[in-house]
Amino acid sequence: MAVALALGAVAGAQAGGKPQGADRSAAQPVTDRIIVKYRDGAIAPVTAANARLAGPSAAQARVMSDAANEVGLRISHLRRNALQAHVMKLERFATKPELDRVLARIKADPNVEYAEPDRIMQVMFTPNDTRYGEQWHYFEATAGINLPAAWDKATGVGINVAVIDTGYRAHPDLAANIVGGYDMINDTAVSVDGNGRDADATDPGDWYTNSACGPAPAPPSSDSSWHGTHVAGTIAAVTNNGVGVAGVAFNSKVVPIRALGRCGGYTSDIADGIIWASGGAVAGLPANPNPARVLNLSLGGGGACDTTSQNAINSARSRNAVVVVAAGNSNVNASNASPANCQGVITVAAVGRNGGKANYSNFGAAVAVAAPGGNMSTGTANGVLSTLNAGAQGPGADNYEFYQGTSMATPHVAGVVALMLSKNASLTPDQVKTILQNTARPFPATCSQCGSGIIDANAAVDAAMGNGGGGGGGGGTGPTINETTASNNTRGTAQAITTANTTVNGSISSRTDTDFYSVSLPAGATLTATLTPPSNADYDIQIQNSAGTVIARSELGTGQVDTASVRNSGTTATTVFVRVVYYSGATGTTSGRYTLRLGW
């Protein structure tokens, strides 16, 4: 069976450049301070005059000193903060494992309410790649994948991602992140390069005439797509190098597997590519020195999942590889597209820049999640920008182009999986899929049967690290409900949210509209409210106490996601009120739609 690229219509772009960046590993220094809060009854009384300088009791100081000594450090008191917690200074910056040991010892004291690192915050990483601003699919609130916040935690270090595709060009914005690879194409009529299987996975071009691809009705003639290079660039274009574009997991490495050539590729070659890429043995081929934890298959054909493909996928999964597959571009149910309908894969639908289903994207129960694939019918710049080549047939100049398709959505997901695995390599393929689905955010526009939502890179990385999932508050996912628009304009008539991790679909109907939601926050719990407004509106978020005092707020600009958090440090539940406030931009039951996630 010949298998084709999962690529929609394409259009032009222009030239650019090359990238790099850095994770903070566990061994790197984190901070030289910790914050320790004792329960009210265990705090020595202080006066206004000595509140800042009053230190812990002798017994408390001894516990903290012993804890620091365990990792060979001394600790001293700096001050009390406004919350009556002690700010303690270590003699040097400590690594995360050292901090974990110190804090665990301190928190063993039942009089300690909480102890945590006094973290150093930084401006969120924004690449300086010259065309990053055109990669709306990474950062826009409507259809982007919330990537910049994830980059502060993970960049894909140590993870190999196999791109099973047309091969790659040594684009200057990509070549530094290419390792190994193999050309799996046996048939020289398909390979174009004049030979069979070998260790050279470079793409010589996949152009063809209409007579080259079998009997009528044959597809029309086509120039070379350089499809694998575009897909690879989305995953791992070199980043923060001052030129070109950024990659989702820009410190991961791409293992190129060339399985598609002129007119597509054969299932037998693709299946061997799946097995070899994941570290399995293929007769006649050397062992793969760079086995991949993530496999990107931006390809597909019609029909049921064949036994060869399913067995190859099963083989890869047995080595803990995550297989990410394009849903296809025929606007049909993905149950009729292979390998999108195979078991054990993460099948990806495409959304356009409005966050709704791209008109070409397949859909259905087989789809796990959606990601930006672009919709260039509304403008070239509404496609996905990545690395490419300008050659019509053979290779030409390196360049950048906007493409659209589920082929473009799929590497967004593969890249996010690489980010997740770089922080928690023990995750299984099924755990990865569950996290992606549980942390996906609701669609801002219609995307029927497109999976659980648009992937959220930041929430997925947090969940992989054990910091909770779903974009804020506690882990897991909760129900999605609609706002009761007629009666929630005051604290007294606030809509009660009774289940943790609830997502509310609401709207600001007019400039004078405001919406209140009440939460009974359990003792010791932290509420995180995350508001996603329309892309052309500025809505703000407040958290108020029962007296109406604002105790947390976020007031970012047009189209930006606002997040505010409060912690109930008391011993009983308390009611807080989350308020959505209009500032400027679109309103109405359609144009003024927002989503509010309330996690605790």
What is the secondary structure topology, with strand pairs?
Elements: E1 2-5, E2 10-11, E3 29-38, H1 58-69, E4 75-80, E5 86-95, H2 96-107, E6 112-117, H3 136-139, H4 147-151, E7 160-165, E8 182-183, H5 188-191, H6 227-236, E9 253-258, E10 265-266, H7 267-277, E11 294-297, E12 299-302, H8 307-318, E13 322-326, E14 337-338, E15 346-351, E16 367-372, E17 384-389, E18 398-403, H9 406-423, H10 429-439, H11 457-464, E19 480-482, E20 495-497, E21 502-507, E22 514-521, E23 526-532, E24 537-544, E25 550-554, E26 562-567, E27 574-585, E28 593-599
Parallel strand pairs: 7-9, 7-11, 8-9, 11-13, 13-15, 15-16, 19-21, 20-22
Antiparallel strand pairs: 1-10, 1-12, 2-18, 3-5, 3-6, 4-5, 12-14, 17-18, 21-28, 22-27, 23-26, 23-28, 24-25, 24-27
What does this structure look like?
This protein is of the alpha/beta class. It has 3 domains: 2-19 and 128-464, 3-Layer(aba) Sandwich (Rossmann fold); 29-117, 2-Layer Sandwich (Alpha-Beta Plaits), CATH 3.30.70; 480-599, Jelly Rolls, CATH 2.60.120.380. The protein is built from 11 helices and 28 strands. A hairpin with an 8-residue loop joins strand 17 (384-389) and strand 18. The protein starts with a strand and ends with a strand. Its EC number is 3.4.-.-. Keywords: Hydrolase, Protease, Serine protease. It comes from Piscinibacterium candidicorallinum. GO terms for molecular function: hydrolase activity.
